[in-house]
Amino acid sequence: MSKSIPPADRDLFRAETEGIEPLRHDQVEPYRQRPRPRPRPRLADDDELLDTLSEAEVDTHEYLEFARPGIQKRLFSDLQRGDLEIGLELDLHGLTAELARETLWAFLRECHERRIRCARIIHGKGFGSGQPVLKRKVNYWLRLRRDVLAFCSATRRDGGTGALYVLLRNPNKARAERAGQR
């Protein structure tokens, strides 16, 4: 393969660049300092919620599972098998829906403060009320939280379909990301 330029192309180039003088300078282009990135404001508890989902759009089946895009399959499999260490547990049995939501929000705040990666939430199976009200609500509420990466029904030894394993955002990564923005 020849790298030579055909004579016709060379003549065309010379004709087009006739009369042009090359720039002469021996200085390197000055360094331009990039502006510092603006840190994202710390979100308040209500700002942690995604507002793009309505409760009617969420189907609640016997076995629950949810994972945000980007969650590694192996990590989710470990969660489903109950192989991740449970840092905290919350039991919502017998609570009204409103009290259960407030309790869940406080629980997730505490998980964040205590740097918990995986938690168990017991919502019950709803046999007393005929339908699993808290199960349906918790399924919806957890999908709204940005700090919840994935959840699934627990194994039989940990409550089965009456409980959930919840995978929370890695607090070490969140701290490293915020430190990198400064």
UniProtKB/TrEMBL annotation:
Lineage: Bacteria, Pseudomonadati, Pseudomonadota, Gammaproteobacteria, Chromatiales
PANTHER family referenced in this protein's UniProt entry, alphabetically: DNA ENDONUCLEASE SMRA-RELATED (PTHR35562)
SMART domains named in the record: SMR
Signal peptide start and end residues: none
Stretches for region Disordered: 1-45
Limits of the Smr domain: 90-169
Record-linked Pfam families: Smr
InterPro entries: Smr_dom (IPR002625), Smr_dom_sf (IPR036063)
Name this protein carries in UniProt: Smr/MutS family protein
Biased composition (Basic and acidic residues): 8-32
Highest taxon in the source lineage: Bacteria
